């Protein structure tokens, strides 16, 4: 199959590279000539483990290329995937479809024969029918179908998710479009991964419903964690007891500073707005959004309380600022609330993150960037573990305590236990939904 992938952001680039690894001929298109220049030089503009090697392999095999020329990429394509951004629109919370609709108009003028125009971007219910109207209006002679094929890629594990998915969702209106999509995903059909073929609206809704449910699960355990702190329970044990129930499962039951990233914040907001527009308020989702914001502020309070109620003039070392490990993505990361709040209260903040500095230098003005956790901790008054990168999971706690002016830790990912932290020489330890400990208390 010949595939044109419009957009080389996270979704478009990962999907394009993986489709080429399936054996298809893939051309990835982007309006940004600098980005295309980097890709043609073999430079991956995002951090995703394994993506650079997979891209190099398929470029060398002649199956993968990059261009700014949309018309050339679309001409003769069997499928044209739209994978451009749908950020939250300022003012009303809806998904901004301007990039999607603009791409559809350009695609319409470039179609030279039958093709399936596939939406990979996360879009509100009804968008694919709107795209169909846009394309037909822009090019009445165009022979095409539309399809909805939402992505379910976890940053940091995207390649494995694409190659070994829990499911693939395909929304189509015709047998012809279904056949094209089946040919594209043939390697997954052969390995019997679940592929759900449904109508356009159901495919669009599946994406929003799935992300909103996962965000709800995260927020629920974070609320339980707050209660655990008051009643003396351990949220890790509570989550384990819940997760062993097959109806619940153990994933997304890890207490912490709240969800972030490119999907959950904007998709919960968009779903809430869709519900309001259709007079079916998404009351649970609206509450999830509100509580997630409150959780971040609660984390700031934890750090302030750890330092006796005042952080002005204090040095705070922050380990990790990306919204999760194994990515350089800073979008809606809890750090973007927590770190500015500490700086605003007069703290001096040092940050170390394996991949976050490139975006973080712009998003977190006023912090001092260092390359090593032990350097960050020197003469610090508190250590805050905010993103659970592997290199922060096996720290020499005794060494850290030894270089700090005031060995106190706020473990906001529950990586360590109070016993091991206090035993290593720290005087104060707080976590989320579990035991907090102070020497002599």
* CATH evolutionary superfamily of the largest domain: NAD(P)-binding Rossmann-like Domain
Q: Helix count?
A: 18
Radius of gyration: 24 Å
Class derived from helix and strand content: alpha/beta
Main sheet?
7 strands, mixed
| Overall spatial form | elongated
Unreliable segments (pLDDT under 50, ≥5 consecutive)? none
Q: The CATH topology of the largest domain, please?
A: Rossmann fold
| Terminus-to-terminus distance | 67 Å
In short:
This protein has 441 residues and is α/β, with parallel strands linked by helices. It has two domains: 2-198, Rossmann fold (3-Layer(aba) Sandwich), CATH 3.40.50; 199-441, Rossmann fold. It contains 18 helices and 15 strands.
Description:
There is one protein chain. The chain folds into two domains: 197 residues, NAD(P)-binding Rossmann-like Domain (Rossmann fold, 3-Layer(aba) Sandwich); 243 residues, Rossmann fold (3-Layer(aba) Sandwich), CATH 3.40.50.720. The protein contains 18 helices and 15 strands. Helix content is 44%, strand content 14%. The longest helix has 32 residues. The strands form three sheets. It has a seven-stranded mixed beta sheet with strand order 11-10-9-12-13-14-15. The mean pLDDT is 95. The chain is α/β, with parallel strands linked by helices and 441 residues long.
């Amino acid at each position: 199959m010949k595939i044109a992938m419009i957009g080389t952001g996270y979704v478009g680039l990962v999907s394009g590279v993986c489709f080429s690894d399936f054996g298809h001929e893939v051309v990835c298109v982007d309006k940004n000539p600098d980005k295309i220049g980097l890709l043609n030089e073999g430079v991956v503009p995002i951090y995703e483990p394994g993506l650079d090697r997979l891209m190099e392999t398929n470029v060398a095999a002649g199956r993968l290329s990059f261009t700014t020329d949309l018309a050339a990429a679309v001409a003769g394509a069997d499928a044209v995937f739209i994978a451009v951004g749908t950020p939250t629109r300022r003012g009303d919370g809806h998904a901004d479809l301007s990039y999607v609709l603009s791409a559809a108009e350009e695609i319409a003028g470039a179609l030279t024969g039958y093709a399936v125009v596939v939406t990979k971007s996360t879009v509100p219910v009804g968008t694919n029918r709107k795209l169909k109207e846009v394309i037909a209006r822009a090019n009445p002679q165009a022979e095409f179908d539309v399809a909805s094929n939402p992505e379910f890629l976890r940053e940091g594990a995207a390649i494995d998710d694409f190659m070994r998915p829990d499911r693939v969702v395909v929304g189509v209106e015709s047998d012809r479009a279904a056949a094209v999509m089946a040919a594209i995903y043939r390697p997954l059909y052969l390995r019997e991964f679940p592929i759900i073929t449904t109508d356009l609206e159901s495919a669009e809704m599946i994406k929003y419903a799935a992300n909103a449910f996962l965000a709800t699960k995260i927020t629920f355990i974070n609320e339980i964690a707050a209660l655990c702190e008051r009643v003396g329970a351990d949220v890790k044990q509570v989550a384990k007891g819940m997760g062993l129930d097959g109806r619940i499962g153990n994933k997304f039951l890890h207490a912490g500073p709240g969800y972030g990233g490119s999907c959950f914040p904007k998709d919960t907001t968009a779903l809430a707005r869709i519900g309001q527009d259709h007079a079916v308020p998404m009351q649970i989702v609206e509450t999830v959004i509100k509580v997630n914001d409150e959780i971040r502020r609660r984390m700031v309070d934890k750090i302030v309380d750890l330092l006796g109620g005042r952080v002005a003039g204090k040095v705070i070392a922050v380990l990790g600022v990306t919204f999760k490990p194994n990515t350089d993505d800073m979008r809606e990361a809890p750090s973007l609330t927590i770190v500015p709040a500490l700086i605003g209260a007069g703290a001096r903040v040092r940050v170390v993150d394996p991949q976050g500095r490139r975006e973080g230098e712009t998003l977190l003005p006023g912090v001092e960037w260092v390359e090593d956790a032990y350097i960050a901790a020197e003469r610090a008054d508190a250590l805050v573990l905010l993103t659970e990168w592997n290199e922060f999971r096996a720290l020499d706690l005794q060494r850290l305590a030894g270089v700090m002016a005031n060995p106190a830790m706020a473990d906001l990912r529950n990586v360590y236990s109070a016993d091991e932290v206090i035993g290593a020489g720290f005087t104060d330890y707080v976590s989320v939904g579990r035991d907090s400990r102070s020497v002599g208390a």
